[in-house]
């Protein structure tokens, strides 16, 4: 059995300001670092044997904080990188400062089947393909049997990963389940090549981040 600990990155200033992040490389803010440290404390007794992270700073920082002094390599993995939103990135998509240009982007959450990516953006199908490839590799890796693996990723990428496990494959149902808050952890066990969600949305800090669907 392989056990995956899939974590969404800590908070960034763009999360706080409700800005679309995607491939924009925004680091953790002070509170995001705090969340990652609290998560690290909650996982301090977990022996990680391998670790993978999206190459984006916010995910890599989260993984590094959680791993702490553990002497294991942290591999950058493009397949768990956040969905690229192209020209939508940087737009404020909620709150008083909501950008009028973000109206089309809102279909990503409210009318997913009809969402059209902006220029230089990815489709949901493209994201699903790469996260599925990563999951299949994890399921096939005999060298990871009996080991704990940390995977540090993002809201949409994590949702895509978990949707594969749930067999929730319809684009219209992409957001059927809520995106977990920043630094929430989901544990997946892989037995005989079959993944199963064991615990979802585990929070190790005391003050929950308000749930919202920006990524």
UniProtKB/TrEMBL annotation:
* CDD domains linked to this entry: HP_PGM_like
SMART domains in the cross-refs = PGAM
Keywords, A to Z, come to: Hydrolase
Q: Which positions bind substrate? A: 8-15, 58
Cellular component GO terms, alphabetically?
Answer: cytosol
Any Gene Ontology biological process: regulation of pentose-phosphate shunt
PROSITE patterns reported in the protein's UniProt record:
PG_MUTASE (PS00175)
Q: Does the keyword Phosphoprotein apply?
A: no
Give the protein's recorded name.
Histidine phosphatase family protein
Q: Which organism is it from?
A: Mediterraneibacter hominis
């Amino acid at each position: 059995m392989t056990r995956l600990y899939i974590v969404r990155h800590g908070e960034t200033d763009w999360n706080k300001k409700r800005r679309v992040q995607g491939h924009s490389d925004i680091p953790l803010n002070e509170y995001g670092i705090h969340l990652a440290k609290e998560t690290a404390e909650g996982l301090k007794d977990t022996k990680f044997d391998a670790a993978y992270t999206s190459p984006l700073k916010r995910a890599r920082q989260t993984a590094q904080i959680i791993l702490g002094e553990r002497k294991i390599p942290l591999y950058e993995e493009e397949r768990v990188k956040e969905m690229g939103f192209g020209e939508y990135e940087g737009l404020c998509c909620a709150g008083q400062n909501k950008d009028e240009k973000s109206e089309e982007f809102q279909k990503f959450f409210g009318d997913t089947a009809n969402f059209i990516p902006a220029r230089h953006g990815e489709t949901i199908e493209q994201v699903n393909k790469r996260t599925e490839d990563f999951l299949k590799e994890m399921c096939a890796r005999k060298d990871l049997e009996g080991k704990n693996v940390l995977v540090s990723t993002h809201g949409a990428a994590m949702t895509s990963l978990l949707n594969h496990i749930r067999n929730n494959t319809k684009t219209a149902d992409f957001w059927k389940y809520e995106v977990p808050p920043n630094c929430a952890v989901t544990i997946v066990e892989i037995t005989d090549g079959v993944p199963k969600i064991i615990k979802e949305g585990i929070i190790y800090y005391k003050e929950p981040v308000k749930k919202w669907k920006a990524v």
